[in-house]
Batch of 2 targets.
Target 1
Amino acid sequence: MPEGHSVHRIALQFERDFVGHLVAVSSPQGRFAAGAAEIDGLRMLEARAVGKQMFLRFEHDKWLRIHLGIYGAWDFFGTISAITAESEALGSIGAPRLRRAVRMAETEHTKDTDLSTFPPEPVGAVRVRLATEESVADLRGPTACEVIDPVQLAAVLERLGPDPATDRSQAAEDRFVTRLRAKPTAVGQLLMDQSVVAGIGNVYRAEMLFRARLNPHTPGKKVTEDQARALWADWVQLLDLGIRTGQMLTMDGLDAEAQALALANREDRHWVYKREGLPCRVCGTHIVVEVMAARKLYWCPFCQK
């Protein structure tokens, strides 16, 4: 499932290449035909991400809400601008004004697609297609895709916890700390609760808990205030890095060569995620895996006593 940094990068892609343009909206699959008709031909005015959800604002106060869920992905075709200087250098999106095809979901990669005819014909179950004269975005497999009004938008946002990519205020931090420490639920489950904090998924959960040397079974109400504020600060740092690079790089203290390897290969990128049965990089104890909040949780039973 795409985590917060991926959704913010997708929103930035729309900001670069769609905001300000009139957009033709269709539903090649047919399942979103009524919603597409509501916003077809309108100008896109804003692209915003909060946690794992994205909101595209069109004229007449119409918002397109998308939650990719586990299987959702966006395919971009045509003019695809670089999102950040780091992503351009890493080649995850490509140079500005370059015509190519890119898939953006949990990871990003360039697709082999014939763009000699533009726009390309939709392939497969495309829920919604957004098209300008130079850029096309196809959405597949989302959990949610709906047109909402400002009142409905406010209701959705009210249910979400703070997202440091959109709000790094003291109030946002305090809200996270209060919500986390108010519950007897295990901290490993609370970090996945989008009403507590928005954007953290399975990878960041495991890695943040290891970086904090915090047992995932610790009840939220037993997490100290200092520990909770340290978790927030770490999420601020990791989310910013993920948005800039497009990678969930959670190992720190790496030299230039090691960092290059980590960016190129997931096996060199994380402390515990997907390393079950392998020795902990710090203490040598075998990393264990269990199911928590319906997802696999990876942790070190020695470092995270």
Target 2
Amino acid sequence: MLRYVHTNIIAKDSKKVIGFYKEVFQCKSIGQTRDLKGEWLDRLTGVKNAHIIGEHLCLPGYKDGYPTLEIFSYDEMRVSIRKEINQSGFAHLAFEVDNVKEMLQRIKDAGGGQIGEVVTTKFEDGRSAEFVYATDPEGNIVELQCWSKKSEYKAAK
């Protein structure tokens, strides 16, 4: 068997970040909260006396509880540099929304931020899309996108 299961965010304040994704993106709890510690976790993470708390949230648009967004906090956190869109490694989460500007405002109202501008572009297949990069309250990058359908694009000409 092969299936995608989850994406993990390590948060300074997991309760705050969990609340943000529930409020803004309507992620739902699947009843999988975690309070993990023990020798097995130390071996798995390579962190001595590791203690992780957090929760799995079902992403919008999916059933059966998967895939999830796993939001955890460690008791002892390492400080890192600010995340940037062109930094190597994990870059962002993307959500398709009905209205980019309205969702961006919801993000800002919930303590998130904005990177760059809201842009609209047309593609060779006749569709257009509006995009913006935003951030959650801890600076994790979130892409918002709203796609037109070919027929909507042609009818709007």
